[in-house]
Amino acid sequence: MATATTTPNEPTARIRGLGLFFTLTFTLTWGIAAILILAPDMVERVFGPIGLGNPLFLLAVYSPAISGCILAWNRLGRSGLRGYFARLRMIRMPVPNWLFLVVGMPAIVYAGAALSGTAGDSPVFSPWYTVFPALFAMMFLAGTWEELGWRGVALPLLQRRFTPLTSGLLVGLAWGLWHLPAFALSGTVQSAWAFGPYLAGLVSLSVIMTWFFNASKGSILIAWLFHFQAMNPLFPDSQPWDNLLFVVAAVIIVIINRRTMLRRGGDVVVELQRPVTEALSTTEDEVPDVRVPVA
Predict the structure, then answer these.
(1) Which residue, among 273, 190, 195, has the nearest Cα to 237 in the 3D structure?
(2) Which tens digits make up the pLDDT trace of 253-278?
(3) Is the peptide bond before 240 cis (omega within 30 degrees of 0)?
(4) Cβ count near 130 (within 10 Å)
(5) Which residue in 14, 238, 260, 285 could disulfide with 112, CB within 3.0 to 4.6 Å?
């Protein structure tokens, strides 16, 4: 198996491609958002109401995924894309992470809803089977696709140089700022929220997702499931209190996992940064062990 002379946890580790990813992602989303904000009537006449049925809106939502795929293909070609998409099949992670995903997140959301006085305002689906299209839309048509970019590309590249905590904070900041046009866009849920608490919540979620990412050995699927749970259509609106509770949860998680979250170049991080040449040597029928085929 091929080896590299430089390991990604060295101080000189490069994060080439990260600037391209952020440039493509923000340019595409903010450019489309400007059109949607400045000429909504024209857009709706041509493409329909602003939402998941509007192709321009979907293009803006999918820009992190599009940028991630472009970067993976540009750096490693078809072989790299195989390794990149193979991370959508990785489902294993420790029991504490599963408990937080399945039990902890709903508990935080409903606690936030109780503080907001909206605990009894869970969405009502009538007839009952209309819940399935809602779940399908959130799982496969909405923001979950972002994870091909945020956790698929940006986070592992940042962890080549920074600690998991710092990397999670940086991705969270970019993730939050990327959503900024949604607060000026009529018809989005964000248009009714305050940006400050939302940004704090997303940064905290990003830190928590960094713990998930490393615990799952770089799985994009786990990040996808986490993202879905964060916007589960069965949950009530618990803004802004859920954001504060996610901040508290993130702090607790970092303290508990401080040996890995606060140390750059720890074993988990190094494992996620195997040399690109090893990804290229993996056979087509294998699920590659390399986690970052885009560096």
Answers:
(1) 190
(2) 999 999 999 988 643 443 333 333 33
(3) yes
(4) 12
(5) 238
Which has the closest alpha carbon to 159: 273, 19, 12?
273
* Residue of 154, 250, 248, 277 whose CA lies nearest to 288: 277
Query: In whole angstroms, what is the distance from residue 181 CA to residue 241 CA?
Result: 22
Composition of the chain by helix, strand, coil, percent to 5: 65, 0, 35
Going by the DSSP 8-state scheme, the letter that residue 263 receives in this structure is -
Measured at the alpha carbon of residue 102, what is the angle toward residues 98 and 104, in degrees to the nearest 5? Answer: 95
pTM of the model: 0.85
Question: Which H or E run contains 223?
Answer: helix 220-230
Which two three-digit tokens encode residue 87?
A: 């991370």
Is 186 exposed, middle or buried (CB count within 10 Å of its CB: 0-12, 13-18, 19+)? exposed
